[in-house]
Amino acid sequence: MTKSSCNTSAGEYTNSSPEASLSALLRLLSPIFTTHWSRLAAGFLALITVDFLQLIIPRFIKTAVDGLTAQSATSSQLLTLSMFVLLIAGIVAVLRFFWRYLIIGFSRILEKKLRDRLFNHILRMDQQFFERWTIGDLMAHAGNDLATVQMACGMGLVAAVDALVMSAAALGFMLAISVKLTLIALLPMPVLIVCTRILSGRLHQRFNLVQEQFSLLTEFARTTLVSIRLIKAYTLENFQGTRFQSLGEAYIRSNLRVAIIQGLLFPVATLVGNVGMLLLLYYGGMLVIEDTITIGSFVAFVSYLYMLIWPMMAIGWVANLTQRGITSLRRIHRLLEQLPAVSRGITQPLPLPQTTIGTTYSCRHLTFTYAGTARPALNELNMEIGPGLTGLTGRTGSGKSTLCKLLLRMYPVEDGMLVFRGVDVNRLSQADIRDCIAYVSQEPVVFATTIAANIAFGRPEATMAEIKEAAATAAIDMDIQGFSEGYATVIGERGVKLSGGQRQRLALARALLCKRPLLIIDDGLSAIDVETEQLVLENILNNMDGQSILLVSHRVNVLRHADHIFILDNGRIVGQGGHQELLAHPFYSSMVAKQRSHA
Questions:
Q1: Same domain, 327 and 401
Q2: What are the φ/ψ torsions at residue 361 (nearest 5 degrees)?
Q3: For labeling, which of 161, 169, 244, 331 is most exposed (least CB within 10 Å)?
Q4: What is the pLDDT of residue 296?
Q5: Side-chain half-sphere of 578: how many Cα atoms within 13 Å?
Q6: Rounded to an integer, what distance in angstroms lies between the CA atom of residue 261 and that of residue 564?
Q7: Which residues contact 245 (CB under 8 A, 6 or more apart)?
Q8: Tens digit of pLDDT for each residue in 553-585?
Q9: 16 within domain boundaries
Q10: Alpha-carbon distance 212 to 428, whole Å?
């Protein structure tokens, strides 16, 4: 029988997959641009109008200077020209507000849509994905990377279009004044183009390293805060602080290397513009002396060259934003390209059979191996889980939790190894299967919200009466009543106000409230005292209505209530039967003897 393994195909879940092409990145953004094309068109129309209005002002200045030089200008003419300049300035101010609102607003919309898509995509991923991608890396994608893409698609796009339009129009006006003078002023431009190309390539590599360093820093901070009680118990505050400082220094060094490139781009662009201005002052002055051009034309030419210096400087800034944006967008694209292995190949899932009669889950020669390990975690497993209480026990590391994860479709399995309601799980939607399963783990997840909201997490529409009923079944209702605010009590981050047993019973109440056909309790009663555990189990059994329950436990007083018990060892079933039958089994009988002696 072929083993089912966590190993993925080449390029999946790895950070070494080939970089996405620019066309692939454009396909990622194009739907958002297409949806908001009218907003962008209006914004860029306002931006281009501002550029052309700014280009008209030097023409008015030329007219005024030529009139003053020829001593033909009158006060009324100068006043009229001034009023025109003032009117243009007012229109420019209004239009600048509009293009900022429309284009920068669009970049925020784009950021939100990408963030929503990223978040929803991550929610659909399976366990393999989260074993390979750290929370810090995912947070870096949702934070720094998205902010960089937003900046590139906002001010970066504005600067690029503004620089293109302004430079083209300014060059046109400059050529109209003097072709020779324009060519002389543009002599330093090739230097800027070459420098920008070289520096932009290095910027891409260095910024990618910055984002990776940020991921490491974020993940370290997260794990430290999550484990703060353990760190304090081992007095590791100074040690963790030193490690965090080391990661911070590495992050700063990476940022400084990026800053070096950024620091070179702007001065180079400015230097090129100033050299062009120096050439203009000399050769343009000579043309004025020779009466080839008027003083007004020279003043207008200087104004246009100043307008051209901004696009020259913007080339460096736009190149910086573009390279950073492409780097971040590639990281986001790589993440969005990941697919959950459990749903790979399921193009048209079959409808879920609605019948709950008979076997719920069947394992047929189920074999599974974790990635990076040689020994199968489960090996040739055959078992049936039907209505009633099914017990599962075995030594630590025997494969009990692995089986629960496979039943929950957290990992992929080979065809035919898992059958749900008579249908191969690889032909069903994982969402449909999970909608039929309620799960209680040994380490329950508790949210920093009210107790009622925690219990109703799986059924937000549940009434308070239903929430209290589930809590009573899980034998935690009296504990909740003991809190000053009852079910409205906020239990703090990770449930710090609750004991281990209370957290487990809270998680159990959450699962019971969902009323799903299959309930899996993976050692989810281990932190509860024996008396309370018996009460909880009796409540569950009394409220069963054709439900299937898989109970993983090491306690004989719990397992003896099971209709059928499976014993796992090294991923294999080494014993099965009822409580009385298994008393003759060496492992089970030793469990009974030890627990009786402890009692």
A1: no
A2: -130, 140
A3: 244
A4: 78
A5: 5
A6: 68
A7: none
A8: 988 888 988 999 999 999 999 999 998 998 888
A9: no
A10: 37
